[in-house]
């Protein structure tokens, strides 16, 4: 059986990243993302891991210059966690 088209349920980060990744590997496969207009996209956490740029530009092969031109991403250099057993925890995105 051959897949003729694909329906992805959910237009959040996982749904759109799935669609982008599958489309990069199967450019002629029709893909539809079904999302609710009533549920907004939260969009938190995607930039907090180092593997996302490697996935987008390495595995999926998305041109980095075009991506930066069109998406205009913001660089996040770290996170300040203001909870837990310590008064704070500062997490930077370097190998520690």
Round the mean pLDDT to the nearest integer and report it: 83
Q: Can you tell me the residue ranges where pLDDT is under 50 for at least 5 consecutive residues?
A: none
Helix content: 25-40%
List the total number of helices: 3
Query: Going across the major beta sheet, what is the strand order?
Result: 1-2
Rg computed from alpha carbons, rounded to a whole number of angstroms: 17 Å
N- to C-terminal distance: 48 Å
Structural features, described:
By secondary structure, the chain is an alpha+beta fold. The chain is built from 3 helices and 4 strands. The strands form 2 sheets. A two-stranded parallel ribbon has the order 1-2. A two-stranded antiparallel ribbon has the order 3-4. Strand 3 and strand 4 form a beta hairpin. The chain is extended and about 55 Å long.
Provide keyphrases for this structure.
96 residues, alpha+beta, two-stranded antiparallel ribbon, 3 helices, 4 strands, 31% helix
Q: How is the topology of this model organized?
A:
Blueprint: E1 6-9, H1 13-25, E2 31-34, H2 51-59, H3 64-71, E3 78-81, E4 89-92
Parallel strand pairs: 1-2
Antiparallel strand pairs: 3-4
